[in-house]
Amino acid sequence: MLASLSIKNFALIEKLSIDFSKGFSIITGETGAGKSILLGALGLVLGKRADLTSLKDKEEKCVIEAQFDISKYNLKPFFESNDLDYEDQTIIRREILPSGKSRAFINDSPVNLNELQELGVFLIDIHSQHQTQELSDENIQFQIIDAIAGNLDSVVEFASLLKAYKQDKNKLSVLFSELKEAKKEQDYNAFLLEELFSAKLISGQQEELEAAFEQLNNVEFIKENLDKSLAVANEEQFGVLQNLKEIKASLQKIASISEDYNTLFERTNSVVIELDDIVSEINSLSEKLINDPEKLDLINQKLQTLYSLQKKHQVSTIDELLEIQNELESKVVSVDNLESDIKNLEDAIEIKETELNSKAIVIRENRLKAIPVLSEKLIYFLEQLGMPNARFKIELKETQNFSSNGKDEVQFLFSANKGSDFGLLKKVASGGEMSRIMLAVKAILAQYSKLPTIIFDEIDTGVSGEIANKMSEIMKQMSNDMQVFAITHLPQIAAKGNEHFKVFKTTIGNQTQSELKLLTNEERVVEIAEMLSGKDISDSAINHAKALLN
Known about the structure:
- Belongs to the RecN family.
- May be involved in recombinational repair of damaged DNA.
- Keywords: ATP-binding, Coiled coil, DNA damage, DNA repair, Nucleotide-binding.
- It comes from Flavobacterium arsenatis.
- Residues 2-507 form the RecF/RecN/SMC N-terminal domain.
- The chain is α/β, with parallel strands linked by helices.
- Among the domains are: 1-123 and 452-519, P-loop containing nucleotide triphosphate hydrolases (Rossmann fold); 181-336, no CATH class.
- The chain has 17 helices and 15 strands.
- The protein has helices at 35-45, 76-81, 113-120, 138-149, 152-198, 205-217, 219-234, 240-254, 259-288, 293-312, 318-384, 425-428, 431-448, 465-478, 491-494, 521-533, 539-549; strands at 2-10, 13-19, 24-28, 62-69, 89-96, 102-106, 109-111, 124-128, 391-403, 406-415, 423-424, 453-457, 484-487, 499-508, 511-518.
- The strands form 3 sheets. Strands 2-1-4-5-6-7 form a 6-stranded antiparallel sheet. It has a 6-stranded mixed sheet with strand order 8-12-13-3-14-15. Strands 9-10-11 form a 3-stranded antiparallel sheet.
- It is elongated, with a radius of gyration of 47 Å.
């Protein structure tokens, strides 16, 4: 319920703070006194867009703050899902800055307008005469039927499952497109992949092959130089190795005489050992050299294959070719994977479709049971509201398509008078009739679901005193289960409220401003008497007002 409302610098309101109680509250005031300003302020709290025209003083910010008692609304899941602090006494604040920027807060946590609007649905239902056209909306009609049918949870589950079903259908469409494109390229990718597989690529192999090719391609030249090196080293009289050995022998003879000679001997000995090892390795390499034209040709072919593949794929290494090979393998394999994914998704869609159909059947059966109850209750309330001959025919038609709330279409057919044919509600019901039907609907829904605070904004326009009296009784009855406000010009309705607030204008200097006050019992008598007879209040009007209040 709306516990309090504070308004600062909004339209004609400079500063206002008022507390409300549960039950049935009345708001009255002359036309233009500021009742629409109050509704505008509440609209901002519920997430409507704001602009600078809302500011009374363009240099100051506008602040609207509403406190709600939500302890019985089961809204903790909403607060948790939006990462907000839950409080039984929740405060919503809306600020409009002189710059034109708007800010919103729930329990001092900044929120966007979407979050505010989502929460607002659970808090206040502002119902004015022009909103009676909502009754013609099929979704609203289903909400009415489903509340009586006890379908509300089932419809939420159905909508959630339908969302997942549609997401899967969209995924399936994307997978089919990917499969179509993949199949177009599959043959060419498979050919490229086979080429790379046939090359038997090994990381680092290219360098080894190029080295082997160089060696086999220059066997004679290499052997010639190795043999020449051996000849120079091993020639019997003048070979380098033989001469070094003679130097070593000479230094050995004087090594014991001085440390310097001994050092030279050891160094020469080291050179002899090293050169001897070099000669031995040259000899070994020379013996291993074999002129093998066949092997040379095989290596050349392998290298030419590598160079050709590198040129085709515009790379320069085997590692890069291996990366391309992996990518092609993934693309070729992906066709099989896509087909498998499609099959799995189709199975999942079929399961969801079966479940949706089952839920839709249950929802439909509950609706069929609820429709006679709704018709009976509507006729009961409308009879009280001066429409004794009103009749309803609610037609439910099963369709093949899923909608957000099942597989049904609904039509509300209405006849206001005996002998009149049924017609679509939106076409045959007058504005006054629609107002009474909407009041009847709200009264019925109050019995079946936890409605938020409801504000009836002059829905009594154009009705007689007796009907107004019945309207007030219905609203009073509704207030046993919920907080109800009625903005009215009719004394019959004003007299039924538990509390009575008056909106009025005052002029201070050159400034006009709107104010709201809670009337005392004496002030209520005067206000209702004025509503009965105008500014010149007669004694009979006073007595009539007292009678209405009693």
